[in-house]
Amino acid sequence: MMLLPCPWCGPRNAAEFRYAGETKARPDPDTTDPHRWRDYLYARRNPAGWTRETWLHRAGCGRYLVAERHTVTNEVRATHPPAAGGGGAAS
Ligand SMILES: [Zn+2]
Q1: What's the mean pLDDT when you consider all of the chain?
Q2: How far is the first Cα of the chain from the last one, in angstroms, to the nearest whole number?
Q3: What is the pLDDT of residues 22-53, one digit of tens each?
Q4: Ligand 1: distance of its center to the CA of 81 in Å?
Q5: Alpha carbon of 40 to ligand 1 centroid (Å)
Q6: 3 FRET partner, CA 20 to 30 A, in 25, 53, 60, 62?
Q7: Separation of CA 84 and ligand 1 centre (Å)
Q8: What integer pLDDT is reported at residue 84 of this predicted model?
């Protein structure tokens, strides 16, 4: 079982959460070019190592959070609320 510490609820079983993707900055759709918009929508780094991800605590507080997780060991070294004004994969 993997524990994911929700910033509002505390450590919870990861089954309570929904993975929402790697965290990346959303470009302004009015000013970005099609190549950058396509990268934002479809390109993923998918590293074998530390990554920043957005998760939804669907069976708890219903809030989005950002987790720093090692994709090989599933170690979670930090979780925090999404940055104001973006940075989350889903908003
Ligand atoms: Zn929560």
Answers
A1: 91
A2: 27
A3: 998 899 999 999 999 999 999 999 999 999 99
A4: 10
A5: 27
A6: 25
A7: 18
A8: 63
